[in-house]
Amino acid sequence: METENTIKKLLNEIYEPYTGKTLGEIGAIQNIEKLKAGVKVTLELGFPLSGYEETLRKNIFSVLEKMAVKPLKIDITSKITARAAQRGVPTLNQVKNIIAIASGKGGVGKSTTATNLACAISHEGGKVGILDADIYGPSQTKMLGTTGKPDSLDGKKMEPITNHGIQSISIGNLIKEDTPMIWRGPMATGALEQLLNETNWKELDYLIVDLPPGTGDIHLTLCQKIPVTAAVIVSTPQDIALLDAKKALKMFEKVKVPVLGVIENMSGHICPKCGYEDNIFGKGGAKKMASEYSIDELGALPINTDLRHSMDCGNPIVIENINSKISQAYLDIGRSITAKISILNKDFSRKFPNIVVEDS
Ligand code: ADP
């Protein structure tokens, strides 16, 4: 028992960088079992971690090495659970967590980030979907390389279109590529709700909502009617983009949706020929915004031709070349996002039955 207690004490204090907490604080230690020879430790974390598991195991080994317990077996599993959304907004049965990806301005790379993050989280073992909420300017069909209209098996709900392991739906799947959406606000917001509620999502751990730029009708509907677990802001580093990014941040704060942090996109450009770094849109703006508003800077991605090309081909860089520096950055940001979600308040709403009051 003494060995187990000492191991527990040491494990409890190991810092887990993606959650920013110790293994003890996140309740990761499930079991410590003394075997005939050696000890088996079982850990459970609340986010997908297939590419991180080995690093974590090595870290734990190096701490426990001092105790000379041999052999030491460390089992690490991941269990993703639903976290709370805005109060009063019912959660969806088939979707555990909804992540809104927002920006102030258009063209800063929000859709690019949403797509690659979806692929990165899926690569780590999460079941991921994308809802393209940009009704007026959908990009996801092109970026995810989905073609054709969604099927309906029951004549009521649409089946999500799956490509690269990501379930998705976009208004772009329902209209011709060059058809402009000339709709007033209520029609666009109605379409968003239909896309969300009338798609037959299949047991998703995370549904990423790729929002339109700004803070308009779609955002209002999202905040009031869609159960959002958390939001992430994407911005280029320059002041003009950050100004609007701050408005998006304030919008989520108003409706009490936790903002996990800001991602700086188009953060400098390194010339592939001479290696000169040209900060076309500046650099470090997101870091400044993060410290000003006490949120995290989740990561920064440079301007990169391979990334742009991969998106144009519908084969996101995380799928095309997982070993590239950019893909590794997306994996890292994806882990930060899902790890931070894993420590938000749990969703208990689906555990309670609906109470119906009837005249008798
Ligand atoms: P938004 O969703 O903010 O409107 P997009 O994701 O559609 O922006 O990106 C706009 C354009 O910029 C796209 O052609 C995309 O491929 C390109 N792009 C986005 N991020 C980068 C980057 N880091 N490097 C190079 N091109 C990028």
Describe this structure in words.
α3 packs across α11 and α5 (185-197) crosses α6. The protein is globular. The chain has eleven helices and 15 strands. The longest helix has 18 residues, at 325-342. The model has no long low-confidence stretch (mean pLDDT 92). It is α/β, with parallel strands linked by helices. The chain is 33% helix and 21% strand. It has helices at residues 2-12, 53-64, 110-123, 140-144, 185-197, 217-225, 239-254, 285-292, 305-312, 317-320, 325-342; strands at residues 15-16, 21-22, 29-34, 39-45, 72-78, 95-102, 128-132, 161-163, 166-170, 204-210, 230-235, 259-265, 269-270, 277-278, 297-301. Strands 8-9-7-10-6-11-12-15 form an eight-stranded mixed β-sheet, with helices on both faces. Strands 3-4-5 form a three-stranded mixed β-sheet, with helices on one face. Strands 1-2 form a two-stranded antiparallel ribbon. Bound molecules: adenosine-5'-diphosphate. Residues 103, 106-112, 139, 265-266, 301, 303-304, 307-308, 311 line the site of adenosine-5'-diphosphate.
